[in-house]
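Appendix C: a fully annotated inverse folding record. The material below is reproduced so that readers can follow the format used throughout the book. The structure is listed first as tokens, followed by the designed sequence.
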């Protein structure tokens, strides 16, 4: 059987209406249980594999729950699978960021970076490196609890393996209508 990675999106966070990428937002017990209920049936057929998590609290909480439910070994951190870094925007409401700044972002969503943050292109490059490292470190496959952004980027890359440039990959992810739900599991085959 071909090796695969299984990416799971973190639970819904507390604090709606905020721009959050690296902001540490917690999840309610109800949101955690809903995400667990969403991913566990899909994980039932997955053999025991290493479990990794983004360093974000919202991902680590789900990783701990998956670990307990599966009787898995402790998870490891996978910083390359973090959400985009919105820099000075992180933790602010969209109103606090302001229309002018949001318009600048909308005019160039692939290359624009909020002050002190990273662009989608930068994030795509980071996620591609993390994906290559994951395949090298865990050739048998792995389970990774992460975020919607990395999942969308890797889904686009797996749909079109010719997308090797970060800017192309970022644009393809933006163009995709697919948005993973909280707790959703994405199965990605390792390329040959």
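Designed amino acids, in order:
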């Amino acid at each position: 059987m071909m090796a695969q990675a299984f990416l799971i999106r973190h639970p819904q966070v507390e604090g709606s209406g905020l721009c959050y990428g690296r902001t540490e937002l917690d999840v309610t017990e109800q949101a955690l249980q809903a995400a667990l209920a969403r991913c566990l049936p899909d994980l039932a057929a997955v053999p025991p594999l290493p479990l990794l998590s983004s360093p974000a609290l919202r991902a680590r909480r789900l990783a701990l729950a998956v670990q307990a439910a599966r009787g898995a070994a402790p998870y490891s951190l996978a910083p390359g699978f973090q959400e985009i870094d919105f820099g000075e925007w992180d933790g602010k409401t969209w109103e606090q960021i302001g229309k002018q700044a949001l318009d600048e972002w909308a005019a160039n969503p692939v290359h624009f970076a909020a002050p002190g943050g990273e662009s989608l292109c930068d994030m795509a490059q980071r996620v591609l490196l993390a994906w290559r490292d994951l395949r090298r470190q865990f050739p048998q496959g792995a389970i990774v609890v992460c975020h919607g952004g990395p999942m969308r980027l890797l889904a686009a890359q797996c749909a079109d393996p010719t997308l090797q440039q970060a800017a192309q990959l970022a644009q393809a992810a933006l163009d995709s209508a697919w948005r993973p739900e909280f707790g959703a599991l994405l199965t990605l085959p390792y390329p040959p």
